[in-house]
């Protein structure tokens, strides 16, 4: 019997998983192994994953620490994901072209995604990669002077780049995807947040969705954010995933930030089925409050 193994992909985060049969449900030992590696490495990569949406949902759900869903529950959950995909070819897909700055999906919401995944169903390499960085490792390595400056501060998060600071937005003029909304949903959270599942502290500000630090003036806020982004997104901290067909990547959406270089509709096919589950509202509130009590 093949033993599950995890190969480090980057010093900060990421592990390629081998020795697991993704054609069947996983036993308790394998689930325990995956959860331990996931909580430590935050991004899991499976190559040659010949799976359907129901199995993708099953893996995402069990990595959240839930009781693994039954086959029926996974099928219902997968159906609820609808046409949740990233593609430069499918007319109904999200983010068909343009650049995505570093972000955590739905960090502006009461229920941001906790675990997300992408499954490469139609990819003809080379295509633009996806980049990940670890927000927990960034906090652990944050210089002491910066840490002292941000402890106790709160940041306002918005859904898309048209709402971030003009200085930052103009640096990527013509490259960014801009959404249109009837109203502006926002969320305020500490710059340093406790992860609801692992308890680790995260540097919870992102290039693409953090508008400002609430306690500072607009310009002072952007100056401080630029320092934090320089630390978070330094080239040596980035895991770059080069996509090939049937890759499956599952990541902790709270503990990591992800980004994408410029994608064009005319480029080679890059269609990735997306599947994710949100963090319950009460878990987010507990994470915020628990940090505020000890900061």
Give a structural overview.
The chain is an alpha+beta fold and 295 residues long. Helices cover 28% and strands 27% of the residues. The protein is built from 8 helices and 16 strands. It has helices at residues 28-41, 53-63, 71-80, 135-140, 144-150, 166-170, 218-232, 281-294, and strands at 5-8, 15-18, 43-46, 85-87, 98-103, 113-123, 130-134, 154-157, 187-190, 192-194, 201-203, 210-213, 239-241, 248-252, 256-263, 270-278. The strands form 4 sheets. The protein has a 7-stranded mixed sheet with strand order 1-2-3-14-6-16-4. A hairpin with a 6-residue loop joins strand 10 and strand 11 (201-203). The longest helix is centred in the C-terminal third of the chain and has 15 residues, at 218-232. The model is unreliable at 281-295 (pLDDT under 50).
Topology:
Blueprint: E1 5-8, E2 15-18, H1 28-41, E3 43-46, H2 53-63, H3 71-80, E4 85-87, E5 98-103, E6 113-123, E7 130-134, H4 135-140, H5 144-150, E8 154-157, H6 166-170, E9 187-190, E10 192-194, E11 201-203, E12 210-213, H7 218-232, E13 239-241, E14 248-252, E15 256-263, E16 270-278, H8 281-294
Parallel strand pairs: 2-3
Antiparallel strand pairs: 1-2, 3-14, 4-16, 5-15, 6-14, 6-16, 7-13, 7-15, 8-9, 8-12, 10-11
Separate helix tally: 8
Q: How would you sum up the major sheet?
A: 7 strands, mixed
Return the structural class.
alpha+beta
Q: Uncertain spans, ≥5 residues at pLDDT below 50?
A: 281-295
| Biggest sheet: strand arrangement | 1-2-3-14-6-16-4
Rg for CA atoms: 19 Å
Task: Tell me how many strands there are.
Answer: 16
Gap between N and C termini, in Å? 47 Å
The helical percent reads 25-40%
Residue share in β-strands: 25-35%
The ordered H/E elements are: EEHEHHEEEEHHEHEEEEHEEEEH
Overall 3D form: globular
